[in-house]
Structures are given as structure tokens and as C-alpha cells.
Amino acid sequence: MKIAVTDTNIFIELIKAGLLPSLFQIGYTIHTTYEVVNELLPEQKSVLNDFIRDKKLIIYSFSASEITDITKQNLSPGLSFVDQGIFYYAQNQHDYFILTNDNLLRKTCKNSQIEVHGILWLMDLFLQKDLCTKPGLCQALKRMMQGFNRLPINECTERLNKWGQS
User: How many C-beta atoms lie closer than 10 Å to residue 80's C-beta?
Assistant: First the structure.
């Protein structure tokens, strides 16, 4: 089974949109790192607790030697330590891919031929697997688009138009 290594921004957006439970129904095993969880606010962490307890979300904790290896990677200096850790965790694994909305991490993955997807891909998958309705996804995407976000406006508008035609 494929493993989806999930970045902080994916959890934040899914929690904000009320779509987090759907992540654990997509047919992939969901992993993240301890560092990702530590970036979340306490109320966001509490939303994840049931999934962690039920072993639907696997949290990986790096060893001291792995942390040293992460800092020695020859990656863009613009990548945060957390993003470097996600990259490190997924890079040498055959069936792992990364879920992130971070553009620099996405480019780094693509340059290293690591499969990478974002929140819009996930939302398309939720629809394809009948985990969400088109109106529900429209509402969720509108919530995600409010305030600060890194979502591509053109792709969001395209989906809102497509999903609004149900």
C-alpha cells in the first residue's frame, strides 16, 4: 500500500475545511513526522488525537543521527527543517509520496522524482471516491480560500465552477 507523508499545511487546510476524516478514507496509509505535529496549534493537535490513537495516523520520530542527516542534505536553504524532514522521510522509500501545498517542497520533490500532490488533488480524490459531495467540496474550498492561503486561484475557481454544476 502507498504511504502518504503529510505536511503541516495539509492538516491545517483539512481541519479548517472540515475534511480531515476523509483523508483517512482515501485508501493510503497516512504518515507524518513528530516535527509536523509540533507545528500545529493545540486545538489542531487535539483533532488528530483520535486518528493517532486508532493508528490511522502514523507519527515518525527521527533519531539523532537522522536529524544530523537531515541538516546535511543539499536542499534549498528556503526549505524549513520540517519540510526537509518530510523530504528525507519519503525520499528513499519506494511507495511513499508527499502531500503538501508548499511550492518549494513541491519543486524539490519533483526535481528529485518524488511523487507529490496537494490539497486540490486530495479534494478531487475525495470526490472520485464518493467521500464528499460537490456542494460540500465547494463550501470547503471556499473556507480554505478565506484569509491567508497558498492555493492557486485559477485552479480553485475552475473546481468551484465544475463542482457547482451538480
Answer: 15
